[in-house]
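In this section we walk through a basic example: taking a raw amino acid sequence and producing a predicted 3D structure, encoded as discrete structure tokens. The instruction is simple. Fold the sequence below.
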Amino acid sequence: MSIDLKLNIDETPVQKIIHPVLVENNISLFVKRDDLTHPLISGNKWRKLKHNLIYAKQNNINQLISFSGAFSNHLYALAGASRLFNFDTKVIVRGPELDTNNPCLKFAAACGVKLTPINRLTYKKRYDPDYLAELQQSKPKCLIIPEGGSNRLALKGMIELAQSLPEVDEVWCATGSGGTLAGLIEGLPENTKIRGVAVLKQADYLNESIMQLSPKAQRQKNWQLLTNFHHGGYGKFNEEIWLFCQSLRHQLPLEPIYTGKLFFTLFDLIQQGHFAAGSKIMAIHTGGLQGLIGLKYRKLI
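The resulting token sequence is shown next.
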């Protein structure tokens, strides 16, 4: 079964980056432009949602429940998908209140998503099995999608992405909840090095999450989560990161929360001689460019 948008949004181009740092170090850097999937549901958020939505349609489930922060890429993509595919969606938002002028929340509301704010203490229960069981019991005909969208159904979409990539030495991605990295591990050959750049502080716990999602991650040694390049933590960045994003904007649109940190890390490590001359590297552009609107709203850029 497929979800027909009148276009194949799984097919996105691969772009080669041209830059003096790459020439000087004899490195070929390619980008899988998953930011170009669709204006409303781009990047890894589409990949993660795709098979959740297919599962829901196959099982006659029309209600979705999920969790997110107020400026979340997951919320934006889920809202767009709900509008496009006629789902009745509720999102529990880390609160305690909703800012009605927040552009991400305004978009979600315009798509018909019911937004329910809860306090931060209650929000911490979003992964608690008892809390989720109680929520499922209260809404037996709904599909609960986790914050960030990373679950076993999401993995199918990420595996499809991995299997669409040309042969390279290494594949890199930004890592928030671990689903993208887990899917790449599942879908790529064992001789390909796979690296995730954690965008949040104290992210070592994600190693366990990744291994829970990916059986291959439990036995293979070709992957690594880098946890020292978060630049202040989730949602935080410094002027250096933002200036770097702007320096590449003529070739590649970036935002400083996910993709900016990924490419900044790559260029930093290339300049340090971390990669062998002649290496071919693929970086996954996971979308999230709508986040720039939220950053401007908060006067952070």
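Looking at the output, two observations stand out. The mean pLDDT is 94. The first strand starts at residue 14 and ends at 16. In the next section we compare this with other chains.
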